[in-house]
Sequence to fold (320 residues):
Amino acid sequence: MASPEVRPGSIPDDFTVWAGSDLHGQLGAVEELLRQAGLADEAGNWSALPRTALVVCGDIVDRGPDSVGLVRRLARLREQAGRADGIVVLLEGNHEAQVLGGLDDQPMVWRAFIEFGGGATLASAGLGPSEWGPGASPRDVARRVEALAPDLVPSLWTFAPYARWRDVLFVHGGPVPGVQSLLAFERGAARLWIRDGFFASADPFPDGPSWATYREAGIRRVVFGHTPVTEPTLYQDGRALNVDTWRGGRVTLARLEPGRTLGEAGFLSAPAEPRAVADAPVSRELIGELDRTLPGIIDAWLDARWPSSRSDVHTSRSAR
Fold:
């Protein structure tokens, strides 16, 4: 989760935007896509044309072969792009929240972190499986991560809550119905876990009453991830684009240009490597329970961590 000082990303209207989500440690596939898109050169340095942005809609970590390496690569590109009339925005996803909350000894968050591929992030930091297995102390694991990959946790705290470009919202899970303000949306963790409460809602986005906050803020389209699909998929009558193609075993970048619809986006994709650490065998019922309960747990944890900066943003917690 972003610290309260990290503001939402803002991309000028005339930029071309490349967007992806749920990269899950797939450093090799991402490097290939960055080269194909002209965003990085063979040495991995930012090489895009001026007025180009890259937005990653969260879940950079866990499951895949090199989460730490991917975080480092994208953080370096973010610095380089800022010096070259470009923008890289890294957004937080539920897996970033699970790393941060789990390593801060939040029991249910730790459970989700370990059961949903978090061991791959720990392995990429240099830990062995015995160090995070049954009975492991999250505090001890956190100390080992700090010793072996001291930049990982500080980097994750810099990921932004969402980004905007023209009338497009980039976010991990999606907009949350019924929120009273964009600040409440920004500071509530429900945007990281929401699924069909957004993209399968019978209340049309953005014109239905549930979405008034976004409509009044000029948001009419959404690019998101979190719920895996086989290929990039449009929802909400073409106003929402899911670019999490994990179910198809691929990593995808979408090219969005000013004046074009989401249905006119171009796509590049590359095959993902096998998971370094598989998810634990869990039921759909447990996944649904975690989707419902983890946002509130994360919100309470962050309220305790930064009480003065979050005292006025509780309205989004029960809106799903």
